[in-house]
Structures are given as structure tokens and as C-alpha cells.
Amino acid sequence: MKNIEKYLSLLNGEVNGLLLTSRYSRHYGAEFDIAEGVAIVTKKGCRYFTDSRYIESAENGIKGFEVMMVDRENPFNKLLNEAIEDFGVTVLGYEENYLTVAELLDYEKNLKAALVPYNKEIYGFRAVKEDWELDLMRKAQDITDKAFSEVLPRIKAGMTELELQAELIYCMYKNGAQGLSFDPIVVSGPNTSLPHGVAGERVIREGDFITMDFGVLYQGYCSDMTRTVALGYATDEMKEVYNTVLQAQLAGIAATKAGVAGKEIDAAARKVITDAGYGKFFGHGYGHSLGLEIHEGPNCNPGGDRIMEVNMVSSAEPGIYLPGKFGVRIEDVVVFTADGCEDITHSPKNLIII
Ligand code: ZN
Ligand code: ZN
């Protein structure tokens, strides 16, 4: 089904128009990414408004919407009100999670239709991916895999985390990244106990764990992966913790299939870590969904009640973080199938000692 048809199916007797303001939902509805703009969806017609910087690519790339240019004489509110009148809109559903208070106040004051929060409905479709969306995510994940294999030989004792981060970003773009899905996490030594630490001036040394959590954007879709590698050597404790995290991830992946709740998958992975005595050092959830955004629902965490469906996506990222010592996280992205899952991350997961 075309995404625009999914949006149209949301329109009923009460809400007869959608106001798409976020880049994500405009991208999803138009199946084409324009950095800035506003779109309106109704059963009588759909219009997409953007300014002169984007108008040419919008006219060439957007299907299913009438594309119109905003300028000083024709600001967004004027064009929106024309559409509201032309299409007989009385109630517009809007994305309350992606609108500033100032923007909402402006729309409430100036638009000639009532506004109702509709984020849940507008975003509800995105959890189950279309096959073409999964193809883009596989491509994004492939770029991430390639970047990882190319950055490994660049890791040397004496370089700083920031220098390694620069190499990693270079490897991502060199292999086809069109953007980064988030600021990479590159931490070393004791900093690896910070699940979302930030790269700094610390010099990487022999005996360090190095955790790299990174992802790219490819045609608007995100990849996400984490690998923890050791430089020079790893102590027995480092190997034990690494292996525990790996076994936890494999247990989570083994429990991953359509028809189970996210929390069951989290529990399968968490059990391995808890049984090994590290339960209190795994503070975050096992997995999050992703797609156009790096963090989407549903989640595979202890509160994940939603039953997972075929073509949903989740990260698989257990970790153990020992404060002041080191931490390990291993992250893949998997696609739910009827009887299991497809792991779309292909980088090796055995402990790599460089
Ligand atoms: Zn990640
Ligand atoms: Zn993640």
C-alpha cells in the first residue's frame, strides 16, 4: 500500500484532514524527503508546501501531492487556509510530538479549522515496514558494516577518541552514507562504562576496550550498530564480560519472532546477564525500533507489552557497564519474521583484538 493511502485511511467523519509538519511524516507520506515544508492530506486532495530552496526537487520527486511554493505573499497559513476551504476541512489532526508551542499557538490562531492531537495515529503505521523500506534499511546497515571493517585497521594506540571518531565518520561517508543517523559514540578504556559517552581527548592505549556505536542515513532511513573491540590484549574479566553480553544478545535474537511481546525478548537476553551476576550493570532496554528515526517504537524493553509483528524492526543491544572499569555493548538490527528474525547486521561478533 502507498503510504499516502495509509494516511487517507485515518480520515473519518470527525478528523477530515491531516497537518503534516515533521520531516518524518512528510517524508513518509510523500515517500520523498524535503528538509522543510508543511503538507495537508484530505480525501479531496493533498497539498505539499515548501519554499524556493526546495521547490524544484519537491516538484520532481513528490508524488500524490499538489506541490505549491510558499513565499512572502503566500505564507504557509494562507496556503493552508486555501486548502482548508477548497477541501472543506473542519478538523485537522496534527503531530503534537513534533510541534513547538509557538507553532501550535500560531496554527490555532490563524487556521480556519479545529486542531486535534493525532500523533499516535499518524505514527502508528511506521512500526511495520514495507518491503521497500526494509531494502533501504538493509542498504544503510551494509554501509555501516563496511565502515566498521574499514575503520578497524585505522585503530592505533596513541590516537584520541576524537581522532578515531573522525576516521569512523569518514569511513561511513566513503561507503555511501548520506548522513549520520545520530552522533556516533566512540569511547575507550574506562569511558566504555558510559553507555552513551561522548568521544573526547582520551588517548587510546593497549588493553583498552573501544566501543563504537554508530549509524548512517540512506535515503532517509537509519542504520544502527555497536561493536566493542580490544586493543592489544583483553584480560580474562574483559573476555568474560564480552562473552556474557554476546550470549545475551544471541539469546535475545533466538527469542525474536512475530507474535511475542517486546518484553519477552528483553527478558530472554536479560536472564543471561542476570544469571552471570551482572544484572544491575545492564540498565537500559534490550532494543528499540528504528526507521526514519533512530529511536521509534515499539521497544523490546521490560515495559514492552506490544506484540511484535512481521516486518517490524528492532535493535538487539544488551550491554554490561562496570563503573570505573569498562563496559561492553554489542548491537545488531533485526527484522521480525513469522518464525524468527533476519539479522541485517553482518559484522563479526566474536571478540576482535586488534
Ligand atoms: Zn546504537
Ligand atoms: Zn540502538
What key attributes describe this structure?
354 residues, 3-stranded antiparallel sheet, 6-stranded mixed sheet, Creatine Amidinohydrolase, alpha+beta
Describe the structure.
This protein is α+β, with helices and mostly antiparallel strands and 354 residues long. The protein folds into two domains: 3-126, Creatinase/prolidase N-terminal domain (Creatine Amidinohydrolase, Chain A, domain 1), CATH 3.40.350.10; 131-343, Creatine Amidinohydrolase (Alpha-Beta Complex). Helix content is 33%, strand content 22%. It has ten helices and 19 strands. It has helices at 3-9, 23-30, 55-61, 76-86, 101-110, 119-124, 131-151, 161-174, 236-254, 262-275; strands spanning 17-20, 38-42, 45-50, 66-69, 91-94, 114-117, 179-180, 185-188, 209-214, 216-218, 221-222, 225-230, 287-289, 296-300, 313-316, 319-322, 326-329, 332-336, 341-343. The strands form six sheets. It has a six-stranded mixed β-sheet with strand order 4-3-2-1-5-6, sandwiched between helices. A three-stranded antiparallel β-sheet has the order 7-10-11. It has a three-stranded antiparallel β-sheet with strand order 8-9-12, with helices on one face. The chain starts with a helix and ends in an 11-residue tail after the last strand. The relative contact order is 0.11. The model has no long low-confidence stretch (mean pLDDT 97). The protein binds zinc ion (2 copies). One zinc ion (ZN) binds at residues 224, 288, 315, 317, 331. One zinc ion is lined by residues 224, 288, 315, 317, 331.
